[in-house]
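FAQ: What does the model actually see?

It sees only this:
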Amino acid sequence: MISLKIIPVALIFIVIIYLASLSFLTRHHQLKAENKRDLTPCPNKPNCVLSLSNKKSQSIKAFPLIDNNKKLSWEKLISAIKKSEGEILVNDGKYCHAVFTSTLFRFKDDLEIVLNDSQIEIRSASRAGKSDLGQNRKRVEKLRLLYH
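And it is asked to produce this:
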């Protein structure tokens, strides 16, 4: 007969293995081709925010240009990403793809920004799992504070 003390330990072990597996499976970066650098819609999961979304739960404000200056605005947002410990994979001056990694299980979240004529659009999404406990929204709002 299995001791009842073993069941909680086994459940914790299973959860840790599951989370570690998710982390491992999402380590590979998938970079977009130069002609496909637009912000894709969020999946039907609560672990993504997008300034272009019509869905209230996933919608977040775009970043306004500072004094209508595209170059200054872009540089300030790139600086904010770096200060927030984002690893910038692509930055061509109009499109940026950065990756943020969680501390404990090393989960990867992708952040993309696109500069247009009037603002900077943004998308932040977890690569794995269903819920991110609001981390992508919090990240974008932290970037917004550093940007201003």
